[in-house]
Amino acid sequence: MDLLLFFLLLVLTFCSGSIIEKNHFKKIIKREKALLRSPMVNFGVKKWSSKRKVIDTKLVYGEAVISADYFKCFVAGLKNLFGGRMTSFESVMDRARREAILRMRESAIGSHLILNVKVESIMINDPKNPQSVPQCAVMAYGTAVTYE
Amino acid sequence: MSKNNQDSLEARYIAMIENNVNVSKSSDLKEFFILVAGIIGFCIILFFSADILSGVFINNMSDKTQAKIENLMSLSVIPMDLNSMADKKYAEQLDFLNKQKLIIKKSNPKLQGKSRFDIFVYPSDELNAFVIPNGTIYFTRGMLNTIKNKQALTFVLAHEMGHYANRDHLKGYSRQIIAGVVLSILTSGQSDSLTSFVQNLGMFNSLSYSRNQERNADLFANSVVLKLYGNNESAIKFMQLIDNKQNIPQFIHYFSTHPAPSERIDLLKHNK
């Protein structure tokens, strides 16, 4: 009975997880294409000057926490035994990073440039607790510059 | 920057967005099946190699070690005096079996100085008999009701004692332990359902032997019967009875671990 439940859960989470992931990627690609012309850079600027007159600088940031579904966790658990690339978590990481950067860029709409963009991952769950859900939290931040 | 150049740059960015290099193209489902197949294969290899190793160990260990392990095992076996609950009508058969038991024990050095080989009636209508790790032998009620022939009863008794002499009971136990370990690796110790499932399979399954072990026990029983009676006609008849009974689905699950009865009949016929 427990086994049946387990397999049912695997099938269900695989279906729901792949549908959610597909939709999310579709949205991400659409949003990235829309923001194609807003530049963001990181060249280690400490003191920056421009020929154009700057009227506003502000901190912009975006965060995203994406969880892996039960099926992905199970596949990753199996992969743990043999080693190798954890392909099931790659897409989770990618979605979290892109989502965080997109949110940062979207909050900087209207400004001309984002300087010193940094991307960081954050550990939210407790790695010592086996019950904790594997998830990926990414934070992206930078300085949005608006010209006159 | 010319217009043309800008367009080609934009096209490059779009290509970068669409062809994501950070995510593998392989699907999770494919990976899942490959991994599951790999783990099942791994477990099968682990199980059989551990089984072979434990078989070698069990065959070569001393009688002292055997006694030690048996004492350890029989701690978990609850002593039941089933005979007081059983019908009095089996008393004559049990008397006969106890007598035969002593004769068989005397004739084989592998059986001496170990167990008392107590014989009990097991309250079940199935046609079966089995030996538990401390050497206690159970005959089911169905067995004693069906088999009245003394030679056939001796054959069954000798078959079970043959299992004991070949240390098949220890092998059965080691196999169960290995299966438990392999399963807990498989479930990475998280879910207890599989492990408890195996443990709950019960006495009959823990004592199921391989076909080869059954063949050896048959040969042992055959030699005993031939020594005591000079022929094995009734033993063959008993096998034929099982052969007929096997058409009834109820008995299939037990005898499926045994060689086909026709094969066993051939074995007995050729070893006269």
In brief:
Chain A has helices at residues 2-34, 70-82, 87-107; strands spanning 54-67, 113-122, 135-147.
What are the salient characteristics of this protein?
heterodimer; A: 148 residues; alpha+beta; Translation Initiation Factor IF3; three-stranded antiparallel β-sheet; 3 helices; 45% helix; 25% strand; elongated; B: 272 residues; mainly alpha; three-stranded mixed β-sheet; 14 helices; 67% helix
Described by its quaternary structure, the protein is heterodimer
Structural class of chain A: alpha+beta
- Biggest chain pair contact, residues each? A-B, 28 and 24 residues
Order of helices and strands of chain A: HEHHEE
Uncertain spans of chain A, ≥5 residues at pLDDT below 50?
A: none
Report the C-alpha radius of gyration of chain A, rounded.
Answer: 20 Å
How many E strands of chain A? 3
The low-confidence parts of chain B are 201-207, 248-256
> What is the distance, rounded to the nearest whole angstrom, between the alpha carbons of the first and last residues of chain B?
102 Å
**Largest beta-sheet details of chain A:** 3 strands, antiparallel
Order of helical and strand elements of chain B: HHHHHEEEHHHHHHHHH
CATH class category label of chain A: Alpha Beta
Number of folding domains of chain B?
1
Q: Which geometry of chain A do the CA atoms define? A: elongated
Number of domains of chain A: 1
* Strand residues, percent of chain A: 25-35%
**Biggest β-sheet of chain B, characterized?**
3 strands, mixed
Number of distinct helices of chain B? 14
- State the secondary-structure class of chain B: mainly alpha
